[in-house]
Amino acid sequence: MNKIDVVLGLQWGDEGKGKIADFLTPNYQIIARFQGGPNAGHSLKFNGKTHVLNTIPSGIFHENTTNVIGNGVVVDPVRIKSEIERVIDAGADVRQNLLFSKKAHVILPTHRLLDAASEHAKGDAKIGSTLRGIGPTYRDKIGRNGVRLGDLFHPNFKQKYEAIKKEQLALVEFLGYKDFDIIALDQEFFEACEFLKEFKFEDTEYFINGAIPTHKILAEGAQGSMLDIDFGSYPFVTSSNTISGGVCNGLGIAPQNIGDVYGIFKAYCTRVGSGPFPSELLDETGELLRKKGNEFGATTGRPRRCGWLDLVALKYAIMLSGVNRLIMMKSDVLSEFDEVKVAVAYKVNGTETNQIPYDLCNETVEPIYKSFKGWSEDLTICRKKSDLPQNFLDYIQYLETELALPIHIISVGPDREQTILD
Ligand code: GDP
Ligand code: IMO
Ligand code: MG
After folding, report:
1. Which of 124, 166, 375, 382 is the least crowded, having the fewest Cβ atoms under 10 Å away?
2. Is residue 227 lining ligand 2, measured as CB closer than 6 Å?
3. Which of 105, 129, 296 to mutate to test the pocket of ligand 2 (most atoms within 8 A of CB)?
4. Ligand 1 center from residue 167 Cα (angstroms)
5. Pair type for strands 309-310 and 365-373
6. Is residue 165 within 6 Å of ligand 2 at its C-beta?
């Protein structure tokens, strides 16, 4: 029986989900996003060009593939309008191949303002959010005060919008945030809503469940497991469930319909925004990882914090999502380091542990490292496992044993072609 496969990030986001979802798409007829929104930036590279997607699933550049924006996603009409225009320009058949859930919540201009206002008010304690309005939109969804895409077609939409706007502007004012022009924001928002209404909207839970027997479906995660609202480094997290459990709520499918769970991780670690990062390198090695890995946000351009691979966090993420296939990204970036390290355990207040401590934000966490001999060979030209240098293969072998899972795909560059299948 067909099941829905899942591809998701096991670290703090930006693992390379876009590249892999695009790479796997030829095996699937439907690609569906189940959470997050335009806080995501998923990069794809083929035919010498890089494309960055924020809300649109990464199967959009393939013909005859339906790309579903599920009910668990939050959609900003203004941002998705420009994303759609960009993707149409790049040659994708968006009108035919993009499908929105009517139940996906709408990011209003005031949600963006509230995101900025609350980050501003937090000062040094800020989350370092992407300022895309994600937190305030999910807060309104859970608080039963949200606007859904299906509401765009309702004759009273404008009244509903005005009522929520009034409430939220009062809050923005209370937080002392003044740097905006609400008339311009309103106009831009309503123009974008009219543009969006031309596309396909459905109760996608029926579409997806109806398609399971006859179609191969891939659910594409955004962010990463350590940013999950329940299991990430709270409160320095995003506002949705990024683990495989989120697929059920975010698309309206039952747990027994989940098949393979592909867990993606970088050969090292990065994090953007604030919050704990036990294996972070604040020295020149971290700087070199950032430079060689071009670690700057695909959405915000912010420099990403860099560090060694963290097996404590990786094992936790594998456990939470029931990952059965591992995919290692950016292996090429580790070439030319004399030694490559992996955090194998933590010392928390002097005691060794293999678990993520409850209060990761306040404990003193010191990683315990295992060191590997580096390799100087350029991996970007390798196309099969036998091309890879022995020191790198030893590193992989160690990871497979420790994680008790085979590494199914090794990525050695951003391009579709730079991918080694086991
Ligand atoms: P996502 O959010 O998980 O889709 O990842 P991002 O697109 O935000 O960040 C991953 C970055 O690494 C992008 O710039 C990709 O083009 C790039 N990338 C993906 N895989 C590889 C790889 O194997 N090697 C290198 N050097 N870059 C990669
Ligand atoms: P992709 O899908 C990396 C981070 C932000 C911030 C925290 C909360 O490209 O991997 P939010 O705007 O969600 O309220 O921000 O989460 N964050 C990401 N970091 N990749 C992402 O997405 C992210 N989406 C959110 O930097 O620390
Ligand atoms: Mg990204």
Report:
1. 124
2. yes
3. 129
4. 40
5. unpaired
6. no
By three-state DSSP, how is residue 262 classified?
strand
297 alpha carbon – ligand 2 mean position (Å): 9
Q: Residue 60 is which amino acid?
A: I
CA distance 147 to 143: 11
DSSP letters, 138-180, are HHHHHTT---BGGGGGSTTHHHHHHHHHHHHHHHHHHTT----
- What pLDDT is recorded for position 164? 96
Spatial distance between the Cα atoms of 104 and 211, rounded to a whole number of angstroms: 19
SS3 340: strand
Tokens representing residue 41 in the block: 């930036």
Phi and psi at residue 192, to the nearest 5°: -65, -40
Who contacts 204 (Cβ-Cβ below 8 Å, separation ≥6)?
Answer: 32, 68, 69, 70, 71, 99, 100, 101, 102, 103, 251, 252
DSSP code of residue 203? -
Find the length of the chain.
Answer: 422
**Cβ within 8 Å of residue 357, ≥6 positions away:** 346, 348, 363, 365
Burial of 128 (0-12, 13-18, 19+ CB in 10 A): middle
**DSSP, residue by residue, 16-46:** SHHHHHHHHGGG-SEEEE-SB-TT--EEEEE
pLDDT in tens, 136-173: 999 999 999 999 999 999 999 999 999 999 999 999 99
| Residue 124 falls in the annotated catalytic set | no
42 is catalytic: yes
CB-based contact 104:71 (threshold 8 Å): yes
Strand, coil or helix: 346: strand
Nearest CA to ligand 2 atom 11: 129
Q: Does residue 226's CB lie within 6 angstroms of at least one atom of ligand 2? A: no
Burial 35-72 (b: 16+ CB within 10 A, else e): bbbbbbbbbbbeeeeebebbbbbbbbbbeebbbbbbbb
Q: Which ligand is nearest to the CA of 266?
A: 1
For the packed helices 311-321 and 390-403, what is the interaxial angle rounded to 10 degrees? 50
Per DSSP, the residues of 206-231 read HHHHHHTTTS-EEEE--S-GGG-TTT
Residue 285 and residue 241 in contact, taking contact as beta carbons nearer than 8 Å: no
Answer whether residue 299 shows pLDDT above 80.
no
| Marked catalytic residue, from 5, 22, 42, 310 | 42
